[in-house]
């Protein structure tokens, strides 16, 4: 056959190597695996990648908040009540320095006026012992902190609240409850939504009708009054931990109907697929058919829905705590900090901008979760 013939085929003279062919097939399968396509498409969405890195960095630091924060969230400084952010400098007698603030009383407005002394820089202390000891994951106690205020000085880069508590430290400690409550609430709502929606979609008939009527009743109720009623029913003598878990359960119980309907509609379509019918004819149990055959085909939607539901949980806790019906002191969350700012604004003292710092992490975290959820949703459909 002539070399220029378009129907000519090239045949290698080398002996057949089954191991080399197996490796070639595995490499090709890996190159075209679905998870590789999903990962590559996700990396193309730079905003989603940056949001994921941002959220991962925040969650990684949560167990180490006591070490990372310069103060405890309960420490008060009566000499710096409602103080503005303290100036911070670099390479002015030290790597990072603070400038002490002196307090004077304005006799005309009767308000405290703080003046920074830029001629007396005080270097911060790093990896030093300061403040009350804390327990790290209940394993050991320590009083070491990443950064400590200067000897005899203060370090309030975000200012203080009306009780003289450091705003930066309270923001960091608040992240523990505000971010964790979203994960717990979503876990509860997804567990209920997948079970109820899966049963309704798989069995159909009167089971589906009962579930749909229950969902319609729950969704017809106004959400905020229900939140307020359930939160107000929590006994006042309960501790912060008990209130935290009850609020998480409340948020989870009220958020499952939307997911249940999505799961139900998907299952109505999947139960007619041939592989589901084959599993039924082979005698597979209902639980196995749902968990092993139907749920994996719906997992992409579940992951995206979970990512988009967490910010709603965070906003729900923030709203309840802001209204005074969520978490209670001595617990601290972003909603409680905003509640303190509201209390300050209702008094005779004019509200100050730095007490509204909790708005910044709430906005950033909610936006990051939305961007990440959009990126995951698009990436999980790599063939679109």
- Given helix and strand content, the structural type is mainly alpha
**CATH-level-2 architecture of the largest domain:** Orthogonal Bundle
Number of domains: 2
- Uncertain segments of ≥5 residues (pLDDT<50)? none
Order of helices and strands: HHHHEEEEEEEHHHHHHHHHH
Estimate the strand proportion: 5-15%
Please compute the radius of gyration using only Cα atoms.
Answer: 29 Å
Measured distance between first and last alpha carbons: 44 Å
Topology:
Elements lengths: L17 H14 L2 H11 L1 H16 L3 H4 L19 E3 L5 E3 L2 E6 L4 E6 L5 E2 L1 E12 L3 E9 L18 H37 L1 H16 L2 H10 L7 H14 L2 H15 L3 H8 L4 H9 L4 H24 L11 H13 L12 H21 L5
Antiparallel strand pairs: 1-2, 2-5, 3-4, 6-7
Helix pairs in contact: 2-14, 3-14, 5-6, 5-8, 5-9, 5-12, 6-9, 10-11, 12-13, 12-14
Q: Can you give keywords for this protein?
A:
mainly alpha, MetI-like fold, 2 domains, 3-stranded antiparallel β-sheet, two-stranded antiparallel sheet
């Amino acid at each position: 056959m002539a070399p220029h013939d378009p129907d000519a085929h090239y045949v290698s003279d080398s002996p057949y190597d089954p191991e080399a062919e197996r490796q070639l097939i595995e490499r090709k399968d890996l190159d075209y695996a679905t998870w590789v396509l999903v990962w590559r498409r996700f990396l193309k969405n730079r905003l989603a990648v940056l949001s994921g890195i941002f959220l991962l960095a925040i969650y990684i630091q949560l167990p180490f908040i006591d070490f990372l924060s310069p103060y405890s969230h309960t420490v008060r400084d009566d000499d710096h009540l409602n103080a503005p952010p303290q100036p911070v400098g670099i390479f002015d007698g030290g790597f990072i320095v603070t400038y002490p603030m002196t307090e004077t009383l304005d006799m005309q407005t009767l308000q405290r006026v703080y003046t920074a002394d830029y001629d007396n820089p005080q270097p911060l202390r790093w990896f030093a012992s300061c403040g009350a000891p804390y327990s790290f994951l209940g394993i050991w106690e320590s009083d070491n902190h990443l950064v400590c205020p200067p000897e005899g000085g203060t370090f309030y880069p975000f200012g203080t609240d009306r009780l003289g508590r450091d705003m930066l430290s309270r923001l960091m400690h608040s992240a523990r409850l505000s971010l964790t409550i979203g994960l717990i609430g979503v876990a509860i709502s997804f567990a209920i939504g997948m079970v109820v929606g899966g049963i309704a979609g798989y069995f159909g008939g009167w089971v589906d009708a009962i579930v749909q009527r229950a969902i319609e009743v729950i969704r017809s109720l106004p959400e905020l009054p229900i939140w307020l009623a359930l939160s107000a029913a929590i006994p006042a003598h309960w501790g912060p931990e008990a209130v935290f878990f009850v609020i998480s359960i409340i948020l989870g119980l009220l958020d499952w109907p939307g997911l249940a309907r999505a799961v139900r509609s998907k299952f109505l379509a999947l139960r007619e697929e041939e592989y589901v019918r084959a599993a039924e004819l082979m005698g597979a149990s209902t639980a196995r058919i749902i968990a092993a055959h139907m749920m994996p085909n719906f997992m992409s939607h579940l992951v995206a829905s979970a990512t988009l539901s967490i910010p709603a949980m965070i906003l729900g806790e923030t709203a309840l705590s802001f209204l005074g019906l969520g978490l209670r002191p001595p617990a601290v969350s972003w909603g409680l900090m905003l509640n303190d700012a509201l209390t300050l604004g209702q008094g005779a003292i004019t509200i100050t901008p730095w007490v509204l710092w909790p708005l910044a992490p709430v906005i950033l975290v909610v936006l990051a979760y939305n961007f990440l959820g959009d990126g995951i949703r698009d990436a999980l459909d790599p063939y679109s």
